[in-house]
Amino acid sequence: MENRFLSKYHRQNPIRDFSARQTMYDLVMSINANNMDYSYAMYFGKEYPFSQLKSETDTLAAALYHDGVRKNTIVGVCLLTVPEVDSVLLAINKIGAISYWLDASLKPADMLHYLEARQLTILIVHETLLPVIAQISSLLSLKRIIVVPADKALGFPDLVHSMPDSRIVSISDYRRNSFEDVSPVEYEDGKAAVIVQSSGSTGMPKSIVHTDYNFNAAVKKMAYCDLPFYIRQRALVCAPPWIIYGLVNSIYSGLVFGITTVFTTLPAEDMIYKHLGEFNFIYGVPVYYRYLYNKMQELTFAGEIGKAELKRIRSILRQVSVFISGGDKVAENELINWQIEFDVPIINGYGNNEVTGAAIVSPRFANRLGSIGIPMHGTIVKTFDSDNGQMLPDGEVGELYIGGDTIFTEYLDNKEATQNIKYTASGIEWVKTGDLAYIDSDGYIFLRGRTRRLIIDKLGYKISPDNSENYIQSFPFVRECVVVGVEVAENDTVPMAFIELESQRAGIESLLDTIKSGCRENLKDYECPKFFEIIDKIPHKDNGGKQDFLTLEKLAKEFVTKQQNIF
Predict the structure, then answer these.
(1) Which domain holds residue 390?
(2) Residue 390 pairs with which residues in a beta bridge?
């Protein structure tokens, strides 16, 4: 079943070898036993050695155990991208409890729902999020709120000591409650270790259950990539810890590989620019590369001062070995422009929460434009006819299914949704991605839209938005385009294009006419958007990651109701 020839794109031997059948705590502490003086994290210039990670992990684990946390207890975690993510993950894992990672952007009512639905008694939260907790504190049955303080040097106010809630304690004070060390639990196959939330970009968010084996196997696959996951490298992390791309592929993998993770608190569009010189490679999403590219373009025309700054940027970029991009697609012409400007290879990563992050990655030395890459070592990828469940031959477009040993256990308390996304065929358990794709003769995978975003018009045509999005985005003045379906009558859905321009421009109507004319000439009649709207910014979920299709569909419905810009 597996395409054996794909091994030519992978390392014959992993960068670091280890057994995936152990707890995360045991793996990190054993594989770094001789590296305790190495830095596992850097945060605004300060470095944190592995010896500090071990001490903070062990004391937190003991304090949690003393506070009644036991095997399979669910502990809520709501942190920003800070070094404490590592010690919290490992401490909870050491005692066999389950870390439940909550989105830091949740509204108070949603936060209340997630905390109370699981009857959580302990929450570990970043200090800047205490105002959200304060709005719902009287309704929470939590017995302890452990606060990771914000760095006061960054201008954050002291909130820990200003809130009149006896349940609140700083994490440093809480650690002092540990009287003696606790022994790590033994590894168990199939035991829940981590719960994360799906992004909800194509439906209601769901709680996704993963095991120690899932996390360790995902990192072991990374060890076979042709990427520079070498000990003592520095990796800038742009993805938050409540999504798998951030927690596993970016942060946890750094602990296993002995990489220094550069933490950034809150993702921002300019974060790569601000942290130039601090990293050798990046786990990013397209919006950050877009900012750096646009910044460099602006400096080209900014006189002598601009030229000097541009020279500085290019000099620093020479120490960067690769940019890793995940979370959303990048148009071919945009990717080419970035690589020419940065003079740094950019590789795509593709996956989802259900398969523990990245499952498909572009080889650094054999990248193929337009492709999302090849399956990672030991991962099986095929296309299926989603109507009848039949596997399709390579070259045919179908729904992309991913099989392997990193597939999630279940959606918590949602058996129906679990059964809907999992599929067993040829003795393999698959996860349905919802993406349309085809696989070429060399095993490279090319996306061709989403089944869940397919637009079916009144004539029964199944319209993939990708074709029209790619065409519209090929115009040099278009930064980003998303096409969604909008219902104009019962059983009649048509495409609508939302367009973000490269910059504020005069003559928008003229540009729009150019796009409309081009669509009429180059797209099939049923693919051609029937409505167009220029908007200031395409909305994204996950801090610049996946495009927020649900929000755009709502905007489209409102737009059509007002009958504006009818095409």
Answers:
(1) 234-449
(2) 385
